[in-house]
Amino acid sequence: MLRSELSPGFVTASYAFLPLVDSAGHFRPLLPVGWTLTFQFMFYLVFSFTLARKADALRVALPVLGAVAIVGLYRTDSWPFWTVLFDPIVLEFIFGIAIARLMLAGFRLPPALALFALFAGFAVIVSVAPAVENLRVVVWGLPAALIVAGAVSLERDLGHVVPKWLLAMGDASYSLYLSHGFFLAALGATIRLLGWTSPVAEGVTMIAGLAGSALVALAVYAAVEKPMLRMLRTGRLRPAAS
Asked: Quick one: angle between helices 142-158 and 91-104, nearest 10?
């Protein structure tokens, strides 16, 4: 079922990171995964304010986003739709600020504790689903914070042994986030057209989905994201000739 629309208003609101409801009644812009970008944009506004005022980011974000999260706990479907922005998920931004603050101050978890945090975070995320949406920040947000804290703490000791291809995938993670839906939809349509339904086909499809999504993301990063980042930083689409 087509859940998005191509009307000027819907498209414009999607590019403006405004909260949108699709034809199925869900919080989804033109690019479905873009709903999280709406929360990110809200955070960027708060963070930009702190930069403009030269204020402490945590001291501003904690009360502002904390209030947004608390209001979200009481929100019901009878509220105006734009109030979907009031959600405890914004607390995950506070986790990120706190981790960055600690790491910039020189704090690191001991290696054994960092490894435990890393694997414990992954174990919780892959094995536990939030019973209600408001528990997402506890069931997924806190484990994600453990993963980040553990990984950053281990970077100084283990960063040099990380394969270059894995670092490349890290660079392309945002491109992966935005592009994987297109590839998986095309792959799914192809498999359906071929009538491939055996258990072996399902396994091959999963592997092809993972590998193909990664390759598409690397291509998008090299052809689109990396040149755009270079242009924003230098004002030139290509690096100056040496």
From this structure: 20
Helix (H), strand (E) counts: the chain:
11, 0
Q: With DSSP H G I counted as helix, E B as strand and the rest as coil, what are the percentages for the chain, rounded to 5?
A: 75, 0, 25
Question: String of b and e for 2-21 (b: at least 16 CB within 10 Å)?
Answer: eebeeeeebeebbeebebbe
Q: What are phi and psi of 27, to 5 degrees?
A: -75, 90
pTM: 0.82
Please state the domain extents for the chain.
1-86, 167-234
**What is the distance between the alpha carbons of residues 53 and 100, in angstroms, rounded to a whole number?**
20
How many residues are recorded in the chain?
242
CB 30 within 8 A of CB 11: yes
The secondary structure of residue 172, as a DSSP letter, is T
Residue 31 is predicted with a pLDDT of: 85
Could you tell me if 154 and 115 are in contact, meaning their C-beta atoms sit under 8 angstroms apart?
yes
Evaluate whether 2 touches 24 at the Cβ level (below 8 Å): no
Range 157-174 burial, b when 16+ CB lie within 10 A, else e: eeeeeeeeeeeebebbee
pLDDT tens digit sequence for 63-119: 999 999 999 999 888 888 889 899 999 999 999 999 999 999 999 999 999 999 999
